[in-house]
């Protein structure tokens, strides 16, 4: 069974980096407008969106992404399960997660989205955008798992470092991937995953929502 994870934007690429460093035995892909973020991840598949404009907007991202769709389709050939991971509320991850999911679904790939909601301090507008993004992903993905960054405060203490806090998000995806690898049966996964996820992610039930 061929499982791939694509990290989109800075948050998604950081999650992919964690998976690689923790020896997750799957193919990983990173897509970003930030070349430094891509260079920071030791994945073989990197897709750079070359935008030479610091004040780029959503339309700029969509336009440059349209030049990469054939490359993405080639990378996704023979994929059974695609996991899309990104942070919602910003530009790259928010905008492109939906379009990647649509490509995958059009190719007949079982598609999961694993995304994060911003902290309250990031502002109401960012949260509003994030919730809209997640609703769009829910409508096209087979399964969507959202993690509320603000609720990380419920499962950490004052001695927890920022990296340790974010690694709890990364670990949740790591648990899901290991479960998929161990099952190794696409039809069984399609039939039972939505029921099994609350069980295998029980220790993170305070921060996740499965939709």
Describe the structure.
It is a single chain. The chain is α/β, with parallel strands linked by helices and 211 residues long. The protein has a single domain (3-210), classed as Rossmann fold (3-Layer(aba) Sandwich), CATH 3.40.50.1440. The protein contains 8 helices and 7 strands, in the order βαβαβααβαβαβααβ. The chain has a 7-stranded mixed β-sheet with strand order 3-2-1-4-5-6-7, sandwiched between helices. α2 links the parallel β2 (27-32) and β3. α7 (162-183) runs antiparallel to α8 (186-200). It starts with a strand and ends with a strand. The model has no long low-confidence stretch (mean pLDDT 92).
Shape: globular
CATH fold-level topology: Rossmann fold
- CATH arch. level architecture: 3-Layer(aba) Sandwich
The string of secondary-structure elements, in order, is EHEHEHHEHEHEHHE
The CATH superfamily is known as Tubulin/FtsZ, GTPase domain
The structural class is alpha/beta
* Total separate domains: 1
CATH C-level class: Alpha Beta
Query: Total helix count?
Result: 8
Instruction: Profile the largest sheet.
Output: 7 strands, mixed
Parts with pLDDT < 50 across at least 5 consecutive residues? none
Helix content: 40-55%
Distance between the termini: 24 Å
Strands, total number: 7
Strand order of the main beta sheet, please? Answer: 3-2-1-4-5-6-7
Strand content: 15-25%
Radius of gyration of CA atoms, rounded to a whole number: 16 Å
Mean pLDDT: 92
């Amino acid at each position: 069974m061929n499982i791939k994870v694509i990290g989109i934007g800075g948050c998604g690429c950081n999650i992919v980096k964690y998976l690689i460093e923790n020896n997750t035995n799957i193919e990983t892909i990173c897509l970003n407008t930030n070349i430094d973020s891509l260079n920071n991840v030791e994945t073989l598949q990197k897709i750079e969106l070359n935008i030479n404009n610091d004040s780029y907007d959503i339309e700029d991202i969509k336009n440059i992404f349209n030049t990469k769709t054939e490359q993405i389709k080639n990378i996704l050939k023979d994929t059974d399960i695609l996991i899309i991971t990104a942070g919602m509320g910003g530009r790259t991850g928010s905008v492109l997660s939906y379009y990647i999911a649509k490509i995958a679904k059009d190719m007949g790939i079982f598609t999961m989205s694993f995304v994060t909601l911003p902290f309250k301090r990031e502002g109401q507008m960012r949260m509003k955008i994030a919730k809209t993004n997640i609703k769009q992903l829910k409508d096209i993905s087979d399964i969507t798992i959202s993690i509320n960054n603000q609720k990380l405060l419920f499962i950490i203490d004052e001695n927890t470092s920022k990296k340790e806090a974010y690694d709890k998000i990364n670990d949740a995806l790591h648990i899901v991937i290991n479960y998929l690898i161990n099952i190794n049966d696409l039809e069984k996964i399609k039939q039972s995953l939505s029921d099994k996820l609350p069980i295998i992610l029980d220790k993170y039930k305070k921060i996740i929502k499965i939709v």
